[in-house]
Amino acid sequence: MRRREVVQAGLGTLLLGSGWAVRVQGASLQRDRRLVVVFLRGAVDGLSVVVPHAESAYYRARPRLALPGPNQAGGVLDLDGSFGLHPALAPLVPLWQAGSLAFVHACGSPDPGRSHFDAQDYLESGTPGIKTTPDGWLNRLLAVLPMSGSPVQAVNFGETVPRILTGRMPVASLATGRRATRRLPLDRPGVGSAFDALYSGSDALSRTYQEGRSARRELLESTGNPDETAMADNGAPASSAGFVGDASRLAGLMAHNPDVQLAFLALGGWDTHVNQARQLEKQLPPLAQGLAVLAQKLGPLYERTVILVVSEFGRTVRENGNGGTDHGHGNALWLMGGAVRGAKVYGQWPGLEESRLFEGRDLAVTTDFREVVAAVLQQHLHLERPQLAKVLPGYTPANALPGLIKV
Length: 407
Fold this sequence. Notes:
Pfam families: DUF1501. This is DUF1501 domain-containing protein. This protein is an alpha/beta fold. The protein is 35% helix and 13% strand. The protein is built from 14 helices and 12 strands. The strands form 2 sheets. Strands 1, 5, 6, 7, 8, 9, 10, 11 and 12 form a 9-stranded mixed beta sheet that branches. It has a 3-stranded antiparallel beta sheet with strand order 2-4-3. Strand 3 (77-78) and strand 4 form a beta hairpin. Residues 1-27 and 225-240 have low confidence and may be disordered.
């Protein structure tokens, strides 16, 4: 059996690289902080998330899609007199009012491409315009953080390791939904013992097997006994929507296992070329509920956590003929957590008048997404300049977002 087959068939937990067992423990301020990245794949329309309701150009460009202003039927939830939140994101308003939710508008990649594949690749590698970068910035971050000695220091929710976590450092993956705690053949004592004996050596294949077994045990112990959970639910669904359940499981995992420091989730379905209004009305509520549940269930750990919500690019300012929008450029990046100085829309707003649009059609990017990431890494995770240079090679922060992170 090959290395990949051992991990995928037997463990349900995928580990990349090797060597976590020899990593030494380190206790520091860095180790006490947490970072969660939520990727909205498909390019969510930032102009419908954080709506520039004070701009007449917004209403001219979107005669059918524009959301009414505050205090109108179906109107936006006013944030600061200039911007408003989509009404379907109402579960997040308490976090805004509590000062732990912020946005950076007109944010994105400097690369002008509108390909989903390329834009996601650049955002996850942290090197816009360079396709040869071998690893993701979250994996590089793991490499410079103090070592916990645990195989679950970085956790991905999904069947396969995403580009952002690809690299030489080991990463644990947990399936989404009910599959997360599904019993596997190796969980049977007889089968597990047989495989344990077969791969008890010190060769590379055996070490990979042992790392995977260890990671799965830690994840299952941290997320609870699935049989006991099913009995407590008494047949009721675990959650009303997949993302809400996954966010709840992640919060429980992080709250119960202090070794989990970095986490990643992705949610698709944001490529709204057609009938955008209805799609967002369906997609945004579970996203907001999931993020609110994540904040609530993290408990005291929320104060030491930053949650980044990103998407590969924004969408066109003008609506199209199908009641949707097309691939654009600038977007809104979200930040949550007790470490965030929230209740503010950060960034330089370029406006939506035609002369201010990128290539005459899109919201311009005035803040490189790496500026936000750099602020989080330096001020929240306390990376030094040499460490930051390893995570975001070739990028020099402009320190353009003062006060975004509490220090």
